[in-house]
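Record type: monomer structure entry
Structure origin: computed from sequence
Chain ID: A
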Amino acid sequence: MHVKYKNIANAIMIAHKPSYFIVALFVLSVAVLATAWGFELIGGYAPCPLCLQQRWAYYFAIGVCMIALLALKLSMRKIALVLISLVGFFYLYNSGLGLYHAGVEWQFWLGPAECSGAISEASGSLIDRINSQRIVLCNEAPWRFLGLSFAGYNMLISFGLAVLSFAIALRGYYFN
């Protein structure tokens, strides 16, 4: 029997088990975090407080994707669907946070007051520690490519991952 698909996305979602897409969501989340850590540790781009906050959704998604895969393995389809929907909402929130951060960088609005470096526990006087800290401000984009900063790319990536999460959840009736 030949079935005509209205679009390629439907064909792809039908042809593969959603567990593959959950694994893809997991891998993409790990890849984004690895890239962020690479820019930080290898590239020397210190994150501001908003940058660090934007990583939370990825950490959350990694853990929840593992739990959702376990739920699928244990035939708890509804729990897996709820978990992946929750990941979608976290990524949607994160996309909004990225938009907010990009707006702060473009000076469209003010950022949070705590956008400064933390004081370390090093020995010495408080003034010496304050003077030695590298302050990372949320309103200064340290890097741009094609006009977008890290926050702008995070907004786009998070939105894409939210769409993927919701697509997996909405097509949940294909779970085996």
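Annotation 1: Residues 116 and 135 are 5 Å apart (CA to CA).
Annotation 2: The first strand starts at residue 144 and ends at 145.
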